[in-house]
Amino acid sequence: MNVLLENLDLYGSAFLETIRLFVIAAIGSLVLGTLLAAMRVSPVPVLRWFGAAYVNIFRNTPATLVLFFFAFAYPRLEILDLSFFSRAATALILYTAAFVCEVVRSGINTVPVGQAEASRALGFTFSLTLSQIILPQAIRSVVPPLSSVEIALLKNTTIASGFSVFQAGGIYQTLNEQGYSTFIGLLWVALGFLILVTPLVLLQRRLEKRWSVAR
Amino acid sequence: MTAVLFDVPGPRARARYRLAAVAGGLIVVAVLAFVLIRFAQSGLFTAEQWDWITYERIQLTLLYGLLATLRAFAVGAVLALTFGALFATARLSDHAWIRNPAVAIVEFFRAVPLLILMFLLYFGMGISAFWAVVLGLMLYNGSVLAEIFRAGILSVPRGQSEAAYGLGMRKTQVMTAVLLPQALTAMLPTVISQLVVLLKDTALGFIIQYEELLFVGRQLGSQLQLDAPIIPVAIVIAIIYIAMCMLLSLLATRAERWSRSRGRTSAQVAHADVTDVEAGAGQAKV
């Protein structure tokens, strides 16, 4: 208990950084992922190929490797001088978007064909069909797997601590330097993640009930 | 579904699609070209940056890194499968004193980030880097696998076990003769997909100094006498990982086709939200 009480501000600021990284990466990955899903079902072959290639590459690469690239190789390219934090956020967005894309696409496949046919019969274009008819239903039906992807993202933020982003995953270093027990210090971090993940799971269950499409 | 989203294009729509294809293609090409030009400016395409790949000693170093990754994967996979089978059985037990602790353990290890688990084992308990990686993989992926196994067994229709009990079978017999064979067939693709996750997670060993592929790559990439070829090394490592994971994913697709064509399981698996999502999200539903 001492480890936690005597370092409350350390834990507080670290977990705030974790939450900040999570929120930014979650919003970014949802936007990019939905966009990629739209590309994957679009009538334009070039965009479909690009979407498929993107998903295959990022789904089969470890998140650590993506962060590795942004931490060590990206500065060599001298594109934009970004902080470690922004680079970590970018890496997590690019990585998670591939999974969001697959979830949204599987959601699109669960919408009954008649819905798309009806909207075509009404003369809706592809983008109208997708944005007004299909996606609103698809996203509601994939709330549970989508939140699983974002919970995974929350846990993946810890990898950023291996690349100099100070957040919950990196607390042990500071504690270790001050002579505290690393084991106890890390147990509190684990507990902190339990506390962060649980409300998300509860929210997931509530949304699942409330938003489930009656079919 | 996707083919229903748009009509067979007429002449005007075809012209519009062509325009979109050209515009989209140009954007994709522009982004790729920009990255390639930056790569070129950072000296990626010079001979010095790729020299290292011709040295036999460096090839061997990379190979040792790859072997270390595969060793962690193999040991971790075996342990995780065992852990998963044990805890799935425990969660399905009729005895609350076995069931409840199993639920608590599985839920705990699924909610805590794998890297924190590895930190706990490595920094907190002083276990060697290899075992910290392997045990972390076992605890996390084992817990996810336990849920997959449990879902598989529960997905066999109730009538099956009721009929088996009706024939006078005992619980163990119902499980081993009726439920498990069907559940395993239905669950095989998901289990293999989870092994892809496990393979990718071995890369976390890099952060706790386990000398796997990424760790070796970091060392190679910072060697000044090789012109610090971090970008070429990262590209080579990425290709190795993508190839390995794609092979495993291919196996999962094969298994899925096999279990469907075999048609001897009555277990219903929600493929859309199990296989696709967890195949790499790295995490199951918490």
Automatic annotation (TrEMBL), chain B:
Is Transmembrane helix set as a keyword in this record? yes
* GO biological process, alphabetically ordered: amino acid transport
Give the family from UniProt.
Answer: Belongs to the binding-protein-dependent transport system permease family.
Keyword presence, Transport = yes
Q: Which residues form a coiled coil?
A: none
> Which parts pass through the membrane?
19-41, 61-90, 102-123, 129-153, 174-197, 230-252
Main subcellular location of this protein, as a coarse class:
membrane
Q: Which domain of life is it from?
A: Bacteria
Q: Which NCBIfam families match?
A: HEQRo_perm_3TM
Annotated keywords = Cell membrane, Membrane, Transmembrane, Transmembrane helix, Transport
Describe its membrane topology: Multi-pass membrane protein
- What is the protein name given in its UniProt record? Glutamate transport system permease protein
**What GO molecular functions are on record for this protein?**
transmembrane transporter activity
Q: Name one Pfam family in it.
A: BPD_transp_1
Q: Which GO terms describe its cellular component?
A: ATP-binding cassette (ABC) transporter complex
Subcellular localization is given as: Cell membrane
Domain ABC transmembrane type-1 positions:
58-252
